[in-house]
Amino acid sequence: MSSGARANDNNKGRWWLEKDEDLFCSAMIAAAEQTDEITRERQDMILDSYTLYGGDTTGVFGSRTSLTEKLPDIRWLGHNAISTVIDTLVGELMQTPAAPMASTTGGDFLDHHRAECLTEWWKFEIDHARVHRLLPQVVRDACVAGLGCYRPYSKADDIFVERIHPLMILMDDVSSLDTTPPQMFIRRFVDRRQLIDRYPKHEEAILKATRPSHVYAMVDEQGTTDEVTVYEGWRIGKKGVYAVVVDGAVLERHTYDRPSFPLVFLHAILPLSGFWGLNMVQRMAPAQAELNKLLRRVQQAMHIMAVPRIYVQDGSINTSKFDNGIGDIVTYTGSPPQVHTPPSMGGDVYGQIERLVKFIYQVGMINAMNAGGDVPQNLRSGRAVRLVLDFTSRLFRDFQRRLEWGVCDLAWEMLRVKKQLGGNAVHKDRWGRYKTEEFSEIDIDEAEMTITVQPVNALADDPPSQLEDIAELVANGVLTQKDAIRASTIPDFAALRRRILAPEDLIDKRLSTIARTGKYLGPEPYMNLEYAVIRGAEVTQEAELAEAGRTTVKLLRKFTTDSFELLQRGQEAAARQQAEVQMMAGPPMGAPPPGQEQQGQPPAAQLPPGAPMAPPQA
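Below the sequence we write its predicted structure tokens.
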């Protein structure tokens, strides 16, 4: 142990360099606890913010009676404008969930197809992991604590996504004012048996590990729960390392050579220095405290002052006759009684309350229309309301962009987790059917791919507004009726979409199969041959621009040529049949006698608008 002790002296403060397992474990836990002490002030501020938002001073964080001074007493009326702002902002940001989309940089036709499959794979995995149910909590953490955090992880060959509570993140960003901190820790309180199931080889060490005693831990003094404090840490750099430790044992340790942490962070307000974001709640706290004080004062004044009183001359009325009866006659002598209800507060107090609420809304990047659904009287149409809401959403546009970038970062992390797992990938094809294939068949080199936010539907989400948008586009000639059915997402049109779009989807499927597999599937006479000619020419040109293989382009050209020939033969047969019907019916009035009509060839096939000329035969 002497050589190990000397090594520890040489590596003092550099826990990631320790070779001995025991020294590494103790050094990492010491570094995490030191970070905990350094950031205790920030943790108290986060607790303060959670109290102002939700009013919960107990629970998993232990009793924090000193924070109850921030809240109005249960006897007094209070309006928590902070929670209204945060909940409204979360709802606005979650209205149109962002989705990642893969795109290739200079790839061929096959790479474009893989990018489409990879995009659909992300959609499936994000839905399977219920990310959109998790994101509202992450957005709320970013607003209340200054930083939201989530990450993907693997379990039993599946990918899951978890939210990490801000108080579980130990990060000393004070020493890294303008860069990402070189190390960070996550402190978790995990059930002992679950931890043994995860690391069965370390069962003995986990059983010996002490129970947590941290002030924020949910420690059951009665012994009904048995938990262990687990530290997860990263050190980035040349000699980077990732490790998971408990008191007395290293559960996992390996090198980590990436320049960033495998986590997704979200900031509501970017920091002026350091890494941890600024706190929205602390910006609104002074106004909320003043609002609480005024509301309490108004309530007290209304109980004391705003009470009806009757002023009468002494001895002028027999008060025993006041029994609150209907039509009672009360006799009096002298001046009649006066009923007076004094005002509880002046109008300037109520005006100040409205100004404080409006100020909190402005700090929280929303307005009264977002928060309470108050629509101005001069806004009659749904389109006008959406335009106003779109204008107000510009207040939190930067926050929304950071949320979208975070979804792209999540896609990168999910891709790296899947590459380590391997196996099959499930995704939807363009016809909405689930398909399973080897992940290597849809994987793309990271150097040749970029991830962007998939464009959301420009149409409204609610059916009445969407019908209004589609009707306007059709009336203006932007969309045909068939295009409108295709663009609509209203469930009532699902069966209609499948029936009307089936002929075109069948042709698209055959063209996609040719481009992807190199196997030829020709057109059939019962197909929509006019669409087959136009779409075949489009796909052929797309394949040439994407530098697809010569064989693929040749097969696509053949599909277009065969479609044109079938269309031409069908039109010629229809023309002959029409001529035979006319001959049997006799010439119409005014027509030339038989044998004198103009001789010539049957009419040539008419190409649909936009169709190219048929390519020459080889």
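Confidence is low (pLDDT under 50) at residues 1-7, 62-68.
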